[in-house]
Amino acid sequence: MPGYPSDLIDLVKEDLAQREECLDYATIKRMAAEAPAPRDGLGALHQPGVSVIAEIIRACPARGPLADIPDPAGLAQLFVKAGARIVSVQTERHYYRGSLLDLDLVRRAVDVPILVKDFVVAPYQIHELRSHGADLVQLNVELLQQDQLEALLDRVESLGMHAVLEVHCPAEASRALEAGAKVIAINARHLGTNYIDRTLFGEIATGLPAEVLRIGEAGVRGPRDLLSYAGAGIDAVLVGGSVVTADDPASIISDLVITGAHPACPGRE
């Protein structure tokens, strides 16, 4: 469904091979083991109401360049001050213009849990992200075989982090549950057309077990969208493009946080 660029995974693997030449697997595993303990991302999502996750993202395949973001640390601090419970950092460099340096800068700047969004295809990346301070790691169900998905999820959790499994349709949600997902992110954006199917949130979220946390990705522009997604069973919303392109991102985050915390808003109790 989402229409990722055909060369994306090849580029990810090429970058990974280059990094492995600089730091071998044994070294990156040791660095991950020596890193400070992960923050409790699952606990942040379990708080009452609808959580807001704010993302550092410079570009995406569907929309192209979004924002330069010369100071990712400062933007992350602004997000947290406005009430975001989790900061998401996109680290893929070719189509999203992110980097591990962004992750380092944000980690040093904020104390809330950090979700890293990238295209994880190998255990090396999981140890690498942990060594740079990741607390939650997104795995894309569509791009992974089932045995791969299960092995990578287990590796994430073995390092004390939590895996967020991104899905785009009910069939992928079923695969995520089969793999043992505790957190599922529903991405309703078709990257090929930029179309957002807002009915997908209800279609998928209502079919998930109550103990599974649900994140709504794509199309969150303001309180009305948050309320709509919450009514469909979403526990948290992730906002990226609409925030980094805004004149006053703090105001957008604050409005979403206030709406998500209102007693009348559906959400976790």
From TrEMBL:
Pfam families (alphabetical): IGPS
One GO term (biological process): L-tryptophan biosynthetic process
Gene3D superfamilies xref list: Aldolase class I
Entry's Gene Ontology molecular function annotations: indole-3-glycerol-phosphate synthase activity; phosphoribosylanthranilate isomerase activity
UniProt keyword list: Amino-acid biosynthesis, Aromatic amino acid biosynthesis, Decarboxylase, Lyase, Tryptophan biosynthesis
Protein's pathway: Amino-acid biosynthesis; L-tryptophan biosynthesis; L-tryptophan from chorismate: step 4/5
TM region(s), chain numbering: none
Keyword Lyase in annotation: yes
Reactions performed catalytically: 1-(2-carboxyphenylamino)-1-deoxy-D-ribulose 5-phosphate + H(+) = (1S,2R)-1-C-(indol-3-yl)glycerol 3-phosphate + CO2 + H2O
The Indole-3-glycerol phosphate synthase domain, residue ranges: 12-255
E.C. numbers: 4.1.1.48
NCBIfam families: PRK00278.1-1
This protein's name: indole-3-glycerol-phosphate synthase
